[in-house]
Amino acid sequence: MFVSWVHSGISCWKGSFVDADLSLERRCYAPLVGPGTRAQPRRVRRRRQQQQPLLAMTTQVQRNENFSKLQGGYLFPEIARRRRQYLERHPEASLISLGIGDTTQPIPPHICSGLTHGAQRLGTKEGYSGYGDGEGLYALRQRIASSIYGDRVKPEDVFVSDGAKCDIARIQMVFGNQVTVAVQDPSYPVYVDTAVMVGQTGRIDASTQQYDGIVYMRCDAANDFFPDLRQVPRTDIIFFCSPNNPTGAAASRAQLEELVAFARYNGSIIVYDAAYAPFIRDPSVPRSILEIDGAHECAIEVNSFSKYAGFTGVRLGWTVVPSTLRFADGTPVAKDFGRVMNTAFNGASNIAQQGGLACLDDAGRAEIERLIDYYIENARLLREGMESLGFSVHGGRNAPYIWVHMPGRSSWDVFTEFLERCQVVTVPGAGFGPAGYDYVRLSAFAPREACREAMRRIQEAFGGVTDPARVSV
Ligand SMILES: Cc1ncc(COP(=O)(O)O)c(C=O)c1O
Question: Ranges for the Aminotransferase class I/classII large domain (predicted)?
Fold first, then answer.
């Protein structure tokens, strides 16, 4: 009995249905039944389904070569791997994570009622809504403009989104692959990774761990975590995060004025990440770059409800693109960003946006303040605990991150030391850029008891050590 098999214009045949003949069949692909081919008997189809797994194959599609340049999400998977290995060796250990920058406290009741109200509306004829504006609910844009920016920005300049990380990627889509970029070193890895993905860079240099085509602006204890802009060459785009992840540094007004003057002089655009702005406790520190004169012609601000209100899983953020910010040919940047928002995005969840409205009324703002106070108190506990042991500690005053300096020691060694001696998980600074080589980051987003217990263990292990640089496993 002969059966025709047709695939991509190639036909082949098979004389009998014994296993020995499967080698021939393997050269063929799934049978097509259609004009010009004969249907297989059901017995044959069943046999194929039962006995012959689909063949492994690759497509003819070339991989986007930019993705082969990426360093492949190395940091957190590697932390998870080392953590797992430790637990395999010490199954009884109870690890405390001061690693991840995710919130842990529940969403406060008034804000939560905004979310449930948003969900319940959808079950009513009057309240139901489907797709909304790609830029977000106008009422929420208005409230962000007034409540967060004191009406220094117009509601039309506010684009509501599903979070700051996603907006950074969409902003990169607007800029494309012909721009040059600068980042703080160390920095939140998304600026560099998205730059690589859209093709703004060459390959990474294995010895410096820096991508060709990116300007790394070193920020360390020696320069008060603010780059020496006299040494920084001009780039089109400058990513700048304050309060900073991972260093916990919040740029002063004078520093932001310097940054804006630098961008204006060079005709650059600053992408300012203010995701941690609500942690600023020092009233002299600006919560937005748009407080600085001249920033409306050279800056975009990315922001998020994630850390404000525990919305890391809810997903809600916003980006301000002032209408006065223009490309070299005079096109408003907001025009292109709006185009991306309406093409590669379809508006933030209507439920989340109702939650956002609740965040920004009086009751919601009071709840946010209490939530942030909780994390800032954790940060104080960690900061003072580490300081009392003689560690060199930065951040943690206007930010939820503590940046601990171990001069000359590899951050991965220090990570291992905290893990082995205290069962405390930290994040090695090297994961945020070469300048993080001898720092580790502690996150204050853990529950209070976990912070206390972590400090107790660290104090027990390191008590009496006055020169942490000399500590070894
Ligand atoms: C500096 C910075 N920007 C943005 C984000 C992501 O924010 P979102 O949850 O709004 O995407 C994070 C998250 O950790 C961050 O550290």
Answer: 95-458
